[in-house]
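Lecture notes, unit on protein representations.

Consider one protein chain, 118 amino acids long.
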Amino acid sequence: MFYTHVLMSKRGPLAKIWLAAHWEKKLTKAHVFECNLEITIERIISPKVKIALRTSGHLLLGVVRIYNRKAKYLLADCNEALLKMKMTFRPGLVDLPKENFEAAYNAITLPEEFHDFD
């Protein structure tokens, strides 16, 4: 009646989700990014074969854990990018000579030439 061994075999479509639900430490970063949660949730909600309620609960726990890891990785990447931007544009890090702090008038002003547009 319930074919969970087919779904959660090592090469099954929901194997990574089952792994996330029960052995979270064995889940690698590559597994997390490789998993498409939208398709996975569709497979859990409307499976081709019947899934027991308890099994679908375990699978949903795996989905939540993978989503949690994806959010943590995204937060870490954003914090790293923000830190790099702050380090790049920090004040006091100017390596220009003092005479080049201001641009010459001719370098930043366009000539006033008006043409007929008719």
